[in-house]
Write a sequence for this structure.
């Protein structure tokens, strides 16, 4: 089975531009998580969904960040406008609460650089 | 919010040595997970623990769910160069049933051939 798929793997953009990160969770998983990883702050949970519904977005830094999950196989994280401090690696993870409880499976990440 | 204290922060060892790292919390957890992250990749699940006292192995890796439910440790025996990476513990607090995991800050392991 394919794992979590993220695109793009690398994104370089200029300050002020809109950035959209994409994620395809593992088929059949009902939870989807967006994380951000930096050297200073480690791995931070931004938002998570259950059955396509956002459950907790308390980790979203500010209104410039938004996330959607229009269906069970696709989610986006959008930053508009982007700022240099948004530079980080963004991970998407998914889990199946029924079969494997709290085990989360991560994608390869998107490395975002905002200049 | 709840935090996990993971130690040590980093380790530099000789190939063939055994490694031990641990994770502690001030509150009870009902699940402990251990992940490894290679450079440029996402964390990969190594071992999942669901019962206090549980001891689980995955090849040269062994992890235990502490009997107090407030800690867990991971051992790597006979380390090899490909063990290099960052190891994260993660847990699900007993007081929460949200599916969210709390992550430790990670242990960076370097192995000298």
């Amino acid at each position: 089975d394919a794992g979590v798929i993220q695109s793009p793997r690398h994104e370089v953009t200029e300050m002020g531009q809109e950035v959209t990160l994409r994620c395809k969770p593992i088929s059949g998983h009902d939870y989807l998580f967006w994380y951000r990883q930096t050297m200073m702050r480690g791995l931070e949970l931004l938002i998570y969904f259950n059955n396509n519904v956002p459950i907790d977005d308390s980790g979203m830094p500010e209104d410039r960040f938004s996330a959607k999950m229009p269906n069970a196989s696709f989610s986006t994280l959008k930053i508009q406008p982007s700022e240099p401090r948004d530079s980080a690696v963004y991970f998407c993870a998914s889990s199946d609460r029924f079969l494997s409880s709290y085990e989360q499976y991560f994608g390869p990440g998107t490395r975002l650089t905002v200049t | 919010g709840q935090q996990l204290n993971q130690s040590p922060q980093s380790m530099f060892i000789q190939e063939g040595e055994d490694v031990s790292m641990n994770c502690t919390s001030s509150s009870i957890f009902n699940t402990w997970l251990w992940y490894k992250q290679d450079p440029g990749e996402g964390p990969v699940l190594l071992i999942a623990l669901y019962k206090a006292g549980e001891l689980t192995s995955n090849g040269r890796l062994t992890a235990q769910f502490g009997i107090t439910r407030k800690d867990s440790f991971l051992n790597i025996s006979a380390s090899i160069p490909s063990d290099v990476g960052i190891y994260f513990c993660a847990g699900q607090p007993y007081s929460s049933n949200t599916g969210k995991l709390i992550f430790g800050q990670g242990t960076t392991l370097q192995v000298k051939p």
